[in-house]
Design brief:
InterPro entries: GHMP_kinase_C_dom, GHMP_kinase_C_sf, Ribosomal_Su5_D2-typ_SF, Ribsml_uS5_D2-typ_fold_subgr. Keywords: ATP-binding, Carbohydrate metabolism, Kinase, Magnesium, Metal-binding, Nucleotide-binding, Transferase. This is Galactokinase. The protein is of the alpha+beta class. The chain has 3 domains: 44 residues, no CATH class; 82 residues, GHMP kinase, C-terminal domain (Alpha-Beta Plaits, 2-Layer Sandwich), CATH 3.30.70; 85 residues, Alpha-Beta Plaits. Helix content is 45%, strand content 16%. It has 7 helices and 6 strands. The strands form 2 sheets. It has a 4-stranded antiparallel sheet with strand order 4-5-3-6. Strand 1 and strand 2 form a beta hairpin. Helix 6 runs antiparallel to helix 7. The longest helix has 26 residues.
Length: 232
């Protein structure tokens, strides 16, 4: 219903991730979503020594309303050229079918194919408690979003690079619809304060004071549910 409302009334052909995590989220769990049938897996995400740091660039998503539908259209065109029904059927060799086509379609398809692979690998890394691998996958994901899907922006790239230079940081990537907004960073809890100071300093200097970053700590929590206010 939430997705349909955005499609119909906001005229935004969005995906299902935000709505589904808002409903199906659980404490200390990440949510692995299969968009083919909307099935989900709850993946252990124990963060006793780690923090999830949200870094807001304060750049508004001015292009996301027009560019997001375009990315969906490009991905669909690439899928048709590869002769496939779903990107879940694709492997990196499937991209050979696009080598004579528009390079943009090749880049878009490469992002989706490799991002599915990274997402599966990230779930396995979390299950194994391998947060260093998780961090590496976050960085790879950002590079792909930046270079192949082309939905990042200069300011968010600065946030990610600043985070990766900060103490205790395992990984960082843009999050959300792109063209502004936030980066999400995985960092050792003991290093949060130092990391925030360093990221803030680098970001302020490199954007020339035009924007000021804001920082929030997040943790996996229960999704939307009925609350008994007498308990609060």
């Amino acid at each position: 219903i939430c997705q349909k409302a955005e499609h119909t009334f906001a005229n935004m052909p969005c995906g299902i991730m935000d709505q589904l995590i808002s409903v199906a989220g659980q404490k200390d769990r990440a949510l692995l979503i299969d968009c083919r049938n909307l099935s989900v897996q709850q993946i252990p995400f124990e963060t006793s020594d780690l923090a999830v740091l949200i870094c807001n660039s304060n750049v508004k998503h001015e292009l996301s309303s027009s560019e997001y539908p375009l990315r969906r259209k490009q991905c669909k065109q690439a899928l048709e050229l590869m002769g496939l029904e779903s990107y879940h059927e694709a492997i990196e060799e499937s991209l050979d079918a696009l080598k004579g086509a528009d390079e943009v379609l090749l880049k878009r398809a490469r992002h989706v194919i490799t991002e599915i692979k990274r997402t599966t690998a990230a779930a396995e890394a979390l299950k194994a408690g391998d947060f260093e691998q998780m961090g590496k996958l976050m960085v790879e994901s950002h590079r792909s979003l930046q270079e192949d899907f082309e939905v990042s922006c200069h300011e968010v790239d600065i946030l990610v690079e600043a985070a990766l230079a900060a103490p205790g940081v395992l990984g960082s990537r843009m999050t959300g619809g792109g063209f502004g907004g936030c980066a999400v960073t995985l960092v050792q809890k003991e290093s949060v304060e130092d990391a925030v100071k360093m990221i803030d300093t680098i970001y302020s200097r490199k954007v020339g004071g035009k924007y000021r970053a804001r920082f929030f700590l997040a943790e996996p929590a229960e999704g939307a549910r009925v609350l008994n206010m007498r308990e609060y």
